[in-house]
Each structure stands twice: as structure tokens, then as C-alpha cells.
Amino acid sequence: MNPLSLKDGGRRWLTTVSASPPRTVVTIDDGTTADEAFRLAAAGTGLAWHGDFPNARNLLSAMSRRCGTAAGKPFQDQRNHQARRARILGRLLVPLDPGHVLPLRRGPDVRVACAEVYGPSESPALVSLRELLGVVGAHEWRVKGVEIPALGAKIHPHHGVFSPVRGEYVDLVARTPLPTRELAFDIGTGTGVLAAVLAHRGVERVVATDNEPRALACARENFERLGFGGLETLEADLFPPGRAPLVVCNPPWLPARAHTPLERAVYDPGSRMLHAFLDRLPRHLAPGGEAWLILSDLAELLGLRTREQLLAAFERSGLEVRGRQDIRPRHPRATDPGDPLHDARAREVTSLWQLTTRRLKARAAPAPD
């Protein structure tokens, strides 16, 4: 978000996704056609909108339709299509005046939503309309919250922190028999929903870790709302110091590249987090303790990982499977035939793997001479 000499009054570039600003920016308005806007954006030109705000949203929708679809294509082709679509649509820009004021006709008040994400504003800026709509939507979810039946309460996600809208993985943690109520680690806590469920079930001490400060801020706010002030948060690369008799982790499920910070909750290139968790787990799991690894088999259904590879990873890390709890998804995309991944989602199963450190077999005593 460094100041840039954009051709729109010297406005600085605002982004949360590390996207580079377009080299060329032209001014467009209500008279610009969707075909012309799409042609310019596809060629790399930024489009600074100066017109009616609802018309800007309509133009964004029209440009999206011109991006086409990748339905029926292999998963990687779909991901490449999504990335190209995001780049093109991200070039439709709107201005923000100091204080995050949107100076467009019939424009909404975005000041609070933008301040939550971008911080204070003292200079004019340009921001992708697509990103701005995401910022506003995230603010609305933060205010409204997501109902979590296992808690009998709501979790309030922040922008850039994955929302627990897929409740099946929460249900797995809520129903699996606890091996202990003494201490648990929640690795990669995000909104803190799983740590909160453990506390709600009576676990006396829960240490929730994440390597994203905004996730930890979100978790702390949720713990305070729920009255779980005793839950601990720690910025860490996976594990806190020490060992626990229960370790819970819901890592990204798909071994593919993430295009945005939010996607890092879903996509993990090479399953790096998964393998790091498994490799280091034996050093942080108390003797006789249990680790709950929550994974969907969507990666297997898409041909990105096999069940044999997952089991081999357990074996290499000195782990064995004590049990497994399965659940089918209930979210709308699982039954939406228009979803590009519908065939796989219709068969998807989410599992909670109960892992323990493998017991070493006692060596036989040497035969007497």
C-alpha cells in the first residue's frame, strides 16, 4: 500500500492481497460498455470508475460473465481460470477519499469496514471494487456472526480469517469422545471456533496458536464474547512449547497454491502445513495422548493426494490411527450441480483422524551364551 503515481489524481493503491497495481489506469464511467471494459482489463489496464456505484457493480457482474467458465475441466485448469478471472475483475477500481469515504453517487458508507481492514486513512486511494465488496461483506459477517450449534452461540469472523460456515468439522470436534479435560492445543486456530468448542466441552486449559496476527485478534475477540477469557492465544509456527494430551488441527485441505491470504485456510502447496504438523507432532503430544487431525477427502477425490500417501505420512512420522470419525458435508455447494467441483463434492467425506504416537515393540532379550 505504498503511495503510487496512478493516473487518477495521484491516489495510492490499497490492497490486502499483495496484488501489484496496474501500470496504466484510465478513467471510465456509466457510458463505458462491458465489452470495452473487459477488453481493457484483460489487457492489464486499470479502470478507475467515476460514475454511479450500483452501475459499477453491474459492470463488474457483466465483466465476470465475459470471463467464461472452467466447469468440467481438470482441477488445475479451474484454478488457473479462477486466478485469471480474479486478475481481470480486480482491475475495476473505485476511489476512496481520506477517511475511507466513497465519493460515488449512491455509494454505501464503507468507512468502518475499510478502517477495520486498512487502518486509518489520511490520503485518497484507489481500491479494487471486487476487494471492496469483500471488505464490506466481511464486516457484515463480523457484525452478524455465524451461528455455531455446538456452542449455542455465534462466532464472529474477521476479514481474511476463514469463516466456520462449514459446520461439519465443528460437529466432529463437538461429538468425538475427549481423551482428557486437562489441556489441549488448537493448532492454526483461525476464528478460535474449535478452541471454543473444547472449552465449552469442559477442557480446563486450551492454548490456541496461529501464525497470522489478525486470526489471533479474531480468536481473542470471540473468546471474550463467549466468556472464555481463560483461553490462551499464542503467535507461533504450529506448536506452542511443551506437550499436551490432546492436540487438534484442521489444516488446509487441498495441496494447491493459494491466490489470496484467505485462501491459505483452504490451499496448502505441497501439503507443507500438514506434513510439518505430522512430523513435529510426536514432540508435542504427551505420552498416551491423542491428536485430532481434521481433513476432507476432497484432495483424494480430485486426484491431488491418495489415501495411501496420507497413511504413509502418518507412518513416517511415527504415528498410528487409534480411530476415525466421519461426516458428510451439509453446505449448499455439496448439492449444487452448477459448482465446478460438484462431482467430487457430492462424494466428499470429512474425517477426524484420532492419532497416537506409535508404540515401539520391546526388543527380545538376547539368548544366553
TrEMBL record:
What InterPro entries does the record tag this protein with?
Answer: N5-glutamine_MTase, SAM-dependent_MTases_sf, Small_mtfrase_dom
> What is an annotated GO biological process for this record, any one?
methylation
Q: Which GO terms describe its molecular function?
A: methyltransferase activity
CDD domains documented for this protein: AdoMet_MTases
Q: Which domain of life is it from?
A: Bacteria
User: In its UniProt entry, what is this protein called?
Assistant: Methyltransferase
PANTHER family per the UniProt record, alphabetical: HEMK METHYLTRANSFERASE, MTRF1L RELEASE FACTOR GLUTAMINE METHYLTRANSFERASE
Q: Which Gene3D superfamilies match?
A: Vaccinia Virus protein VP39
What UniProt keywords apply to this chain's record, in alphabetical order?
Methyltransferase, Transferase
Q: Which residues form the Methyltransferase small domain?
A: 154-296
Q: Does the keyword Transferase apply?
A: yes
